[in-house]
Amino acid sequence: MGLNAEGTPGAPNPNVKLTDVIAGVGEKQLKAERAADGASRRSKHRGSWETNKFEKWRAAIENYEPSVKLGNQTSLNAARVPFATYINAIHNRLHPIFAEEFLASLDNLPNSHELNGNLITHIEIVLSKDDGRIVRLGVTKASGATAFDVVALNSVSRASPFGKAPPAIVSPDGNVYLHWEFHRDPFDACTTRNARPFLLKAAPTLMPGAPPSRRPPSLRPTDDGMPGPILPLRPR
Asked: Which pTM was predicted?
C-alpha cells in the first residue's frame, strides 16, 4: 500500500491520497519539509565526497612541499615493528571513512565520471608524537581529480588524532612521518601495503611559499636504503 493506492475491497483503506496530505499538513509546510529533506540528503552526499572542502585544502594540494626528501632519512631498523603496529592503528580509523564511506558512495556513478578513473593520491602525513595529531598534511603526487585528492586529505583529518606514537618511530624533531597512497580501486583503497614510514635524520628545512612541485621525486624503495611499505602484522 502507498500514497494514492487503492484499498482492499470491503476493508478500511489505510492509504492516504496526496490531496488529503496537502489538506492535513498544509501545502506550505509540506514544501518546507521536502526542502529540508532534500537539503539533508545533499548534505550527506557532500559529507561523503567532501568536494566542498577544496578551499580548506588548496595549499595542501597546490603548494605542498614534502618534509621527507631523498637523502634526509635514516634506517628504520628496530622501528619497523612499532611502525607496523602504529600504521595498523591508523588504518583501523581511516578505512571506515575513506573506503567504507567514500568509495562505497561512488558505486552508482557512471563509468565516464572522473571519480571512476584509475586514481591514486600520494599523501604525506606528519603527526605529533604525544597524541598523533596532524602537524602537516599534503599531497606529494596528485591523482588528477581534485575531488579525490580533497577526500583523501579530509579522510586523514577526520580520522585523526591517532594516539601516542611509540618512541622508536619518532624522528629527532618529535614528529612521526608517513607517506600513504589512496586508491580509487576498493581493493587497494587505503591499505597499509601502500603506507611507507620514515625516520628523519633531522628536522626538515622547508621553504615558505615554495612553488608547487608538479612532479616530486619518487620515494619508492631504492638502492640507497629508502624504506618500502611495512606490511600489516600477522596475528600470532
From this structure: 0.70
For residue 86 the three cell numbers come to: 602504529
153 is a domain residue: yes
List Cβ neighbours of 16 (8 Å cut-off, separation of 6 or more): 3
Residue 39 has pLDDT above 80, yes or no: no
Q: DSSP 3-state assignment of 80?
A: helix
Q: Are residues 181 and 160 in the same domain?
A: yes
Per-residue pLDDT reduced to its tens digit, 132-187: 999 999 999 999 999 999 999 999 999 999 999 999 999 999 999 999 999 999 99
| Residue 155 burial (CB count, 10 A) | 23
Mark whether 157 and 76 lie in a shared domain. Answer: yes
Q: Which of 122, 114, 105 is nearest to 188 (CA)?
A: 122
Are 29 and 100 within one domain? no
Do 74 and 157 lie in a common domain?
A: yes
Amino acid residing at 19:
T
In one-letter notation, the amino acid at residue 106 is L
Degrees to nearest 5, angle at CA 156 with 154 and 160: 115
Q: Are 21 and 66 within one domain? A: no
Which grid coordinates are listed for 17? 491520497
Indicate the pLDDT class of residue 24, thresholds 50, 70 and 90.
low
